[in-house]
């Protein structure tokens, strides 16, 4: 495990004496003590770390310096290089130590050099560990190929199918790369780096794709496959969201269902706004601190109390309307939310002063409109 | 990870604020005008819960401020919102070069359709091409449904649809409860 850029960056060492002490094992301990005692929270100390020769830096990294969080990366690299069931933001699931180098580059102050340089360098260094762990890879290959590709994309997503943050969705695709030619791989990585630059700093700017057994390995088909898998993963989420799509197989039919669902929702919005426009001749909301105060609690429990202060003009009730209202009342009792309505009805009528009430002529015409518009 | 409850609460708050801004005091407001105002405030409220992060919310605000006669109302509603939304409502949504790209794609598509190629392809390839065409057609329809969909590629279209469906559901739920409540109260 070597930092490939170690010797190249000792152009301006922080402490010139350290160069002499590199080869002096007696003073080694003193240096470590000094560096550890310096508060390591800021990036400048990390810079100092990177300016040391590689073996010293590795030693320091292995030291209990938890703020760097690189220790977890190294540990996970040793223990579980491939299967990371929990995708933790602090727990980089990348099997190569290129993740470490990436984070080092990002955290360090002297990140004037390109990240590309580092990634290219890391490509060459990763060939070393990848060869040694090639046998591990063959073991993993025996698993169904879909398992890993599905594991990573769907794992953080399926856990929350209802609310999906779009930024979080792009954190996934980290599959193991298995290629001979690194020239092609670097072009592929730089191509897809544009997609991922906007993500958080934990993520590498390129996508590892595993070439499955018996499939083409040129960059075009790999890119297509990565794209298709992305689309399929998101389609699965959509299928879970839209009711009744689980049993359907085939993209076109699923899309049909989705389109129907969206259309029906949009139509519902139209009808509901028409209903609301019909119900009130005039709406005068007395919105005050009640809404702001109740912002923290659940809507269901508070909705009646929120609605009650919003007083509505009283409309003349004819016989029709009363029957209708009683029906509504019985329907409403079924829902637990409306159970509290009975209590709060008493409070409504004194609040008529807040109402702005139209003349009865208007309300009568509106009433007839409303009856015509029975939805 | 936003729970649906928080979406509904935010939406309700913003919607009621918007409804207050709408001037319902005018005597000449017909029912259609009222319905337009209600729908406009609902749309802007549900778009602002996303705070300009998603493409559909920005497109929705742009559309609302374009279609509604009075842009002042829209701007007043967005007075407290993030800068992105305000910018979107005042400028347009998309830079002109995007429109050029879309128009040229349409021209290409039409020219492709005009070509009559009678090639005897094997059945499997034919089936695949038919399936692709079906999917393509439905993607077009979905693009027309989701606000701002024409400017997105496939992947982000699906993401935006997901988000849009969730927000639409919250909007419908809140509006339904409010409509029921008002009808109930009116019955009294």
From TrEMBL, chain A:
What are the subcellular locations of this protein? Nucleus
Q: Where is this protein primarily located?
A: nucleus
**Spans annotated as Disordered:** 120-205
Q: Does the keyword Transcription regulation apply?
A: yes
Q: Which UniProt keywords apply?
A: Nucleus, Transcription, Transcription regulation
Instruction: Specify residue ranges for compositional bias: Basic residues.
Output: 173-191
Pfam families hit by this protein = HLH
Q: Which residues form the BHLH domain?
A: 215-265
For this protein, the record's PANTHER family field holds: STEROL REGULATORY ELEMENT-BINDING PROTEIN (PTHR12565), TRANSCRIPTION FACTOR BHLH48-RELATED (PTHR12565:SF112)
Q: What is the protein name stated in its UniProt record?
A: BHLH domain-containing protein
Q: Which organism is it from?
A: Hevea brasiliensis
From TrEMBL, chain B:
Keywords in alphabetical order, please.
Answer: Transcription, Transcription regulation
Q: Does the keyword NAD apply?
A: no
Q: Which residues cross the membrane?
A: none
* Residue intervals of the IBH1-like N-terminal domain: 5-66
Looking up InterPro entries in the UniProt record yields: IBH1-like, IBH1_N
> Do you know which PANTHER family this protein is assigned to?
TRANSCRIPTION FACTOR IBH1-LIKE 1
* Protein name, as recorded: IBH1-like N-terminal domain-containing protein
Source organism (scientific name): Hevea brasiliensis (Para rubber tree)
Q: In the record, what lineage is assigned to the organism producing the protein?
A: Eukaryota, Viridiplantae, Streptophyta, Embryophyta, Tracheophyta
């Amino acid at each position: 495990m070597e930092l490939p850029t170690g010797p190249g960056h000792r152009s301006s060492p922080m402490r010139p004496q350290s160069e002499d002490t590199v080869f002096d094992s007696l003073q080694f301990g003193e240096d470590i003590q000094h560096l550890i005692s310096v508060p390591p929270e800021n990036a400048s100390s990390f810079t100092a770390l990177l300016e040391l020769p590689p073996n010293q830096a590795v030693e320091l990294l292995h030291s209990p310096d938890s703020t760097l969080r690189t220790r977890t990366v190294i540990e996970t690299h040793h223990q579980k290089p491939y299967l990371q069931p929990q995708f933790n933001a602090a727990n980089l699931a990348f099997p190569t130590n290129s993740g470490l180098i990436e984070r080092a580059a990002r955290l360090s102050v002297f990140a004037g050099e390109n990240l590309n340089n580092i990634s290219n360098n890391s490509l060459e260094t990763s060939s070393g560990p990848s060869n040694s762990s090639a046998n591990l890879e063959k073991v993993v290959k025996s698993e169904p190929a879909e398992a890993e590709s599905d594991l990573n994309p769907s794992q953080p997503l399926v856990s929350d199918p209802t609310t999906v943050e779009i930024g979080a969705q792009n954190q996934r695709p980290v599959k193991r790369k298995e290629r001979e030619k690194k020239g092609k791989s670097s072009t592929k990585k730089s191509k897809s780096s544009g997609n991922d630059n906007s993500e958080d700093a934990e993520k590498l700017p390129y996508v590892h794709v595993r070439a499955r057994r018996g499939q083409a390995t040129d960059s075009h088909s790999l890119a297509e496959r990565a794209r298709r898998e992305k689309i399929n993963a998101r389609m699965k989420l959509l299928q879970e969201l839209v009711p009744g799509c689980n049993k359907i197989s085939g993209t076109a039919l699923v899309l049909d269902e989705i389109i129907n669902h969206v259309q029906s929702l949009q139509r519902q919005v139209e009808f509901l706004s028409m209903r609301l426009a019909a119900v009130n001749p005039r709406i005068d909301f007395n919105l005050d601190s009640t809404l702001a105060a109740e912002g923290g609690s659940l809507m269901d429990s508070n909705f009646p109390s929120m609605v009650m202060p919003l007083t509505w003009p009283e409309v003349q009730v004819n016989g029709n309307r009363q029957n209708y209202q009683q029906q509504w009342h019985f329907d409403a009792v079924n829902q637990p939310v409306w159970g509290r309505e009975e209590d709060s009805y008493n409070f409504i009528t004194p609040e008529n002063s807040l109402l702005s009430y139209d003349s009865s002529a208007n309300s009568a015409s509106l009433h007839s409109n409303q009856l015509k518009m029975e939805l | 990870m936003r729970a649906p409850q928080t979406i509904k609460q935010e939406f309700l708050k913003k919607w009621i604020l918007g409804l207050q801004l709408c001037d319902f005091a005018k005597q000449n407001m017909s029912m259609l005008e009222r319905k337009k105002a209600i729908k406009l405030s609902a749309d802007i409220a549900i778009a602002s819960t996303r705070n300009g992060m998603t493409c559909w919310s920005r497109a929705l605000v742009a559309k609302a401020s374009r279609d509604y006669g009075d842009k002042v109302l829209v701007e007043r509603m967005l007075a407290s919102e993030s800068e992105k939304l305000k910018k979107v409502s005042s400028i347009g949504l998309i830079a002109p070069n995007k429109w050029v790209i879309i128009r040229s794609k349409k021209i290409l598509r039409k020219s492709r359709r005009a070509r009559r190629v009678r090639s005897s392809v094997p059945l499997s390839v034919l089936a695949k091409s038919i399936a692709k065409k079906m999917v393509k057609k439905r993607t077009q329809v979905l693009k027309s449904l989701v606000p701002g969909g024409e400017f997105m590629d496939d992947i982000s279209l699906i993401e935006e649809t997901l988000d849009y469906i969730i927000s639409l559901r919250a909007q419908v739920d809140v509006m339904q409860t409010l409509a029921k409540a008002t009808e109930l109260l009116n019955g009294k």
